[in-house]
């Protein structure tokens, strides 16, 4: 048995949820996938996956084993790439899709610094808040908000956590009813970012307590974060927005942070890339750079 191969097959079966999907993803037959899993189970003397003709379920030992081996496989891949990176000069074209607002505020400055470090690289940036099909558009990487990947041919890596804050302009607060908790938001004009995964469903946490609010229709809906901030500054209502968008305004008093004891669900940005780009030197180097850039 090629144990490394068997472990890799096991990981893909778990992540894709079926032997058939793993076979298609890895270019193997279902029989080869099944053989690798069976040999691995025999070697470990423990069932890892219970399967029937219709369904498969990971066992408790299988889940424990998966949690360990996925990190080991990732480290092996990173080790290989680190050697490749030291022996190949970075060059060529890198095509990237980024959201408009966070792209201007955060991603584009990082891209510029990356290009300064790698002068042989050319970068084409597509700024759009809408979903872009990476393969159809010939893109190497897309920067997107978090969420489950619907396409099993894509991979993701977190690059930036984004704390969100509830805020409004003092002018609006002088005219509005007092806000004492998340339940009161239904009495306010809440401004909505339409491309959120849950535009009108806001969730807040405080010391183990959770409150989920379904907002009534407000007077302003927009598909751009900076436009959302502008509407809030104009006193139109309350917004829930990434803190990095409004740090300056919160410090200056142009906006007021609301319900500071409550924390909204945190969002994150991920680098999304096609599976076949996983071994691309320039793709891996750029993503590693972004992770390090935002860690700073």
From TrEMBL:
PROSITE patterns the record matches: HTH_LYSR
Pfam families: HTH_1 (PF00126), LysR_substrate (PF03466)
Keywords: DNA-binding, Transcription, Transcription regulation
Domain HTH lysR-type: 1-59
InterPro entries: LysR-type_TF_proteobact-type, LysR_HTH_N, LysR_subst-bd, WH-like_DNA-bd_sf, WH_DNA-bd_sf
Superkingdom of the organism of origin: Bacteria
UniProt family annotation: Belongs to the LysR transcriptional regulatory family.
Protein name: LysR family transcriptional regulator
